[in-house]
Structure formats: C-alpha cells, structure tokens
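Table S2 (continued). Query chain:
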Amino acid sequence: MVYDIAKDDWTMLPEMARERDECTGVFEVNKEGLFRVVSGYCTLMQGRFERIAEAFDVGEWPWLPVEEEVVPERESSKTCVVGGDGRIYAENFSYMEDLIPGLPEEIGLECLIRVPHGTLPLLRQVCSRWKQAIESPLFHHLRRSAGFSHHLIIFVEARQAVRCTLRFFSSHPYCRLVALNLSTGEWAPLPSIPLVFVSHPFFFWVVASGLHLVVIGGLDRYSVSCNDSVYVYSFLSNTWRHGRPMPGPTRFLFACAGTTGNQVIIAGGDDERKNALKSVMVYDIARDDWTTLPEMPREHEDCTRFFSAGLFQVIGGSKQKTLQWSREEDWLWQAMEEEFSKTCMMGGYGRIYKRGVGGKMLLVKEGEEWREVAELPEDVRGSPIMVAWVEILMVARVESCCWPSTVFLLEMKKGVATGWRRVAFPKKYHGYFYTACVDI
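Corresponding output:
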C-alpha cells in the first residue's frame, strides 16, 4: 500500500512476488525511483539464511526481482540506509557475537556511533566484531545521519626543530598537523608525518577523502626540486603510511581535490622546467594506485580546484573564464562559460562562495544566481582565506607569518546564514596556513 500525505488516503498496489516477514525497505531517490524491500532470516532447506530483495518501480508499478547471493548462516542483515548520493549502504554483520553482550544489535550499534572520534582507533582493537562494525561505511553514515560525527579542520603547522641532529639543524622547520574539532572546540596535534617529510616543502597539498588525509607533492625548499611523495593518514587507525609516489612528470602548483569515494584527483600544474601541464591523474587510497585520466583541453598552471556532487572543477591562473568539469563516471571534460576567481570556494550542496565588490559582503551562488548571504566581519575583510564544507564556512585573515590571526565561522541553515562565531587560536600553534576538512 502507499499513503498519500497530501490527500490523506491509502492506495492498494500490486502484490509482491512472494511473502515477506521481518523485512525492511529503502527508497532510492535517483533517476530510477526504486523502492527496495529486503527480507530477513528466510530459512532454506540447507539450514542457511538468504538475503532476498525486490525493487518496486514507482512510475510503472511493476515489481522487479533483485538477485542477492545466499550468505552463510547468521550473516544476514536487514540494516540498510540510502545516502544522499543515492547509494545503498548495507552491511552483513556477523551475528555470532553481539556488539555489546546482552543488548540487541541495533542498540549496540546506537551506542557505538555515539563515541568521540578520537576513541575510534582504540575501539577497533577491542575485538574483531567492533573492528568490523567501525570500518563499515554504514557505521559512519549512521554517525553523520544521527548528528554524532565531528567536524574537523586540519591545519598544517610549520615549526622550528627543538633539537639538532646529524642531518637537520634547529633552524630547519618541520611539519605537523593540528586538528580543530568544531564540535567540541578542542585543539589536538595529529601524529607526526613520517621522517622523510620532516623538511617542510613549498606548494604541497593536504586534502581529505573519506576517513583519510593525504599529503601530496610539493617543492623542496633547499634543492628546489619537485616532490612526488604521497602520505596517507587514517583516522580509524591513527597511523600514517607511505603511498605510491605520483607518476611522472613531476609537478607542482597543480590542482588537487579529494572525493567522497577515497580518491584524490590532481590536474595541471608546472613541471620542473616550468612548462604548464594539462594531464590529469586520480589516486585510489584503498588500492594505493594511480590511474591516468583524459587530459584537459588546455594547460592549467597555478590552478585551484573544487569537487562537489561528482564533479571536479579546475580554475586556472589568477582568473579564468572557462571552468572545466570531469564526471566521475565517464571522465568527460566540459567547459562552463562563467568568470570565477581562484579565491572562490566550493561549499556543501553545490554552493560557491566569494567576496563581493569592495570585500564587504559575502556572496553565495546556488543555481544560476549570485546573492548576498552575510556581511564579512571587519577583522577578516581584505584578502581572507575561506574554507567551506557542508553547512559551515570558515573565513580567516592571515598575517605576514602565514598563520591566521583572526578566524570566524559562519553556519548556514537551508541556505540562510545564522551568524558569525569567532574562533580563538591557542598561542602555542603557529606557522604556515593550509587546511583540509573532515567529518568523522
């Protein structure tokens, strides 16, 4: 049956192909418009459990069979949710061992999604059952849906070495990452980047993708040579690993963005001879592998990037009228005729932010039109740095030391600004200013 909320009326629909008991349903909000029914615990003659699903086309009203494999006993799950991207998240949690002894599975999962993000690496070590649950995409989707995920801003801090070694002197700077937890207001340093990265380079990128941070590329401050190194930090294990280096040609001043699917895309830049490049590559974090993508129609050097809703956007030079996008599915480049500045920032829900004429007003673009959303605080007018994600925009003013002196946060509710909030920086943190944003 289907219930029409506006008409306050019920309508009978065609029956399913077979009976369903103890089942759940998910609805895909995408071009297919399918209502899926997943049944649980249907015992077969072999004493095994079967996952059975049917999809219902809400346009034509036919039931469509959905083939699902037969899984071993006590590994069937009817825990399914649909994300905003139209993907179905489902996990086959092993029920031989309860998440929390004496509690139903759903209650145990509700308890785990409420733990602070900093304790997740410890929870993974409790038992294989908790490790399996915490590493599943469903677990983190539930955390975000229930409002228990933490919003982190990652700052790269360049500091002076505290002691001399045979190789590095105290005047040599080194890097460390510092996380600002917007949910709690707490500051905390992340584990040190591997020793090979101790000499702080120029023009490197720090991007977030899924539950990872990726530090990539750069220009060596002493030899002025391009760095092709890749370092990956996992928030679940609280450890760094050395990723596969970038394939040639080595480059710097390139565009780099992390996707929601544990991938990092790089495009354009300059090679070691200052030749502009138009090649594009994608790094798969899970597979630790690089894939070459179709080249851009023209070279882009000293460019910036955005990634939103499956589209990768490159803006070349200080101002470029042609925006170029790549779709994740077919990697086709398309030109968009609109003038943007490199200081523009892509936020959540496809919003693009920029400063208005005179630097007094903050503008946002949703759809085809620009509109004023808020007045910038006086302390950050001029040439502020902006960082945006989901419903939050951070605006900072950077002094000559390259570390922000003033930071404000603007929260958006359904496209409407709710007001600025000032963030205090601890005096013990100082150095260069690079950022990345993570939800965990």
